Amino acid sequence: MKPDPNRRDILRNAAVLAAATATVSVPGSLLVLSVSANDEKEPEVTATEDLMREHGVIRRALLVYFETAPKLRQNPASVDPAALRQTAQLFRTFGEDYHERMLEEQHIFPLVRKQGGELERYADILTAQHKRGREITDYILAITNGSKISAAHAEPLAKVFETFVLMYENHAAREDTIIFPAWKKNFSNKQLDEISDQFEEIEHKMFGKDGFEDAEKKISNIESALGFADLAQFTPPPPKV
Ligand SMILES: [Fe+2]
Ligand SMILES: [Fe+2]
User: Fold this and answer.
1) Most buried of the four, 2, 109, 167, 218, by CB within 10 Å?
2) What pTM did the predictor assign?
């Protein structure tokens, strides 16, 4: 039987297998899990976890740009523009139109801005960076619209990739560690649950029921096409002493 990659189904099957109720002790730990047939629901993805795993997809797109920059300098003809274009399209739909516009700019930044001081400044800078990012995505989409990347475009595109990656890695890291925690403080756990549901509804409206899963699949396919699929290739050799 073909394995079903859907997490909801895996959890549902696990719960069914557990029949009525079972207690699972994990050897060597104090953890005791009680699984019941009534606990079939997928564990909730919290609002901040949702935003941060979206950053995971965005970061993987940034890594595609990062890995491509030296290749563009060495041999632009070897770079497949279609894969870069797909990366920019994913960045546009999932990163910019959904994560930035629908979640951060609508829900996160307005509240954080109201908290004043340094946070207000952060909200302004992060918004300006979203705008610059969209200009950069427009540029990448335009340059990758042919069958080849010309030698004349190779160096400017490589430079754009490097500066964009540096900006957005800083951007996402500050959001993860400063902005999202500050935003979260405005709510009780119950309110956060409701906001998680709202975020999920927005995701469903924009992409159907598996927005995140589909975006993850898309970036996986791009990584495969470019030879970046095997994670082990990124493990460096031990340092020489
Ligand atoms: Fe952002
Ligand atoms: Fe973000």
Assistant:
1) 109
2) 0.83
